[in-house]
Amino acid sequence: MGPGVVVTGLTLGALAVVSLLAFQANGAQDRAVAANPVTSTAATSSGPAASATPTATPTPAAPTLPAVGTGTGLRVVYSVSAHYVWLIDPKKTPQVVATFPVTPGTVEPAPGSYPVYSRTPSGTGTDGKQIEHVVRFAQQNGVVFGFGAAVDGGTGAPPAAPAPTSAASSPAASAGKTGGIRSSRADGQLLWDFAPKDTKVVVIH
């Protein structure tokens, strides 16, 4: 065997070793990429995944019953400023049986204590809507004040009474004022069951 053959054999062997090492290095790199994939910062920061989760609007909490000036005993308390009603029974724990918002008419009753003097299971409001569970407690300047609920579930304030058509029209109609205080049907049922005739209604500011 001549020197040229030996050199050629050594050269081929060296090339084979280099090719094997290069193949092993590429394989190791591919395995590293598979184990640690690159995450796109654009997709996570500006894509749909980054959208804020919508949150529900919290329901406003009912105002706290004032510590003084609301009377004593079994009573209905109505605030003309907060437009909330509290049903209070001192024999129960807690004493506040229910609290709910209401919508007043065009005028408000003066602060004070009044007895329920009249109750009507159903009737017609000044807006022509059918109303139920009407609990009346005061009359001032020809305006009748009382609680009630619209049968259709609406809680909007009843509109002013129509203008008088004759001299015999009532003072309330001539003034175009209404004192109906409306609640939801469910709350109206609560008040109806809670406040029979002569139940105290305390009106506060």
Describe this structure in words.
The chain is α+β, with helices and mostly antiparallel strands and 205 residues long. It has four helices and nine strands. The chain has a five-stranded mixed sheet, with helices on one face. A four-stranded mixed sheet has the order 5-6-7-8, covered by helices on one side. About 15% of the residues have low confidence.
Secondary structure layout:
Elements: H1 3-35, H2 41-46, E1 75-79, E2 84-88, E3 96-101, E4 112-115, E5 118-124, E6 130-140, E7 143-150, H3 171-175, E8 179-183, H4 185-194, E9 200-204
Q: In total, how many beta strands?
A: 9
Shape: globular
Distance between the termini: 121 Å
Please state the oligomeric state of the protein chains shown. single chain
Biggest sheet character: 5 strands, mixed
Low-confidence stretches: 5-12, 38-48, 163-174
Q: How would you spell out the order of helices and strands?
A: HHEEEEEEEHEHE
Strand line-up across the major sheet: 3-2-1-9-4
Rg value: 40 Å
- Which class do the helix and strand fractions yield? alpha+beta
